[in-house]
Amino acid sequence: MRNVYYWSPCLEKVGTYWSTMNSAISLAKYNKNHLSVKILNVCGEWDSEKSFLIENDIELIDLGLNYFKFLPKTGFFKSRFSFLVIFILSIFPLIKLLRNQKPEYLIIHLITSLPIILFSIFNFNTKLILRISGLPKINLLRGFLWRMVSKKIYKISSPSNDLISQLNKIEIFPQNKLFFLPDPIIRIKKFINDIKLSGKENLSISKRKYFISVGRLTKQKNFKYLIDEFYKFTKNNHDYDLLIFGEGEHKKKLLNQINEYSLSNRVFLMGYSKNIYSHMKNAEAFILSSLWEDPGFVIIEAGMCNLFIISSNCKNGPREFLQDGEGGLLFENNKENELTNALKSFIETKQNHKIKKIITKKKCLTYTLFRHFKILNKILIQN
To answer: End-to-end alpha-carbon separation of the chain, Å?
Structure first.
């Protein structure tokens, strides 16, 4: 039986966290007889999922370090400090594990520089699979590391074909090592159960129709621009509210912005929702204002909920997912009146919504756990 290990030290339960767990679940669920799936619990970050992972035939391997609760989780500099701490304290435990347990595959999602550096120094009898999402800035250090270890990386996965094209252009990795691997976002049974549960909830958040947006309240999600544009939209339209779900370090700034525009009765910061589908199902449309995504969990979930999608034309994911606008509306981010005009267009072209939503929902099936498994399993059984 082949051993597949995952390295993904996450500080928060964000997209990469769920992508790692769902990927492991897909391998354990659909290839039980040939693969033994394990997640490295680097500093206690996976402790809360231990029982769930065991139920799904996934073993949690502790590195003997348990300081996760002491690490700062939010804020750019604080999170970078935490990643640095994890990097330094994990060096020797990871070397020991790779030498003693000799996993056949190590799939790395976060803090990828540590395994990459170790593989460039030592000869481990392990195939390294690197996941690249977004388009990381190719600074001198990253470019040097990637070139130096390129021969030792078995494969490089990306959740976006656009990103693969960009990686080919920088000519660091051989093209035959790059492959498209859609994130495992949709767990069909869980989705159906969550939708059923959402149907039992009675929501009276907004008396008007509303748009919905979901994400961490951080720079990446660009909610400041969304609120700016929605404010202009409300000047001539009084029929819609805006609901934003999520938590993050920009919450206070966004609340101040809402108050400055006197939008406290039109724009609502809803915080975290355990079952976002209960709110999506009643929305008029989903808005993604991110500066970058690949393509992001919530846009797929919105598509599965049969929501019309209005998205920024940011790099990599959303444009590809919406098939250059065939499945929704795209706008150029941070350009004045772009999103405002997209919202107006949404209202004026309702006759086209049904077709676009069908196109999008069909595309969502690319992001099921089984589809992810089929592609990844093919890579794992090549040798």
So the answer is: 13
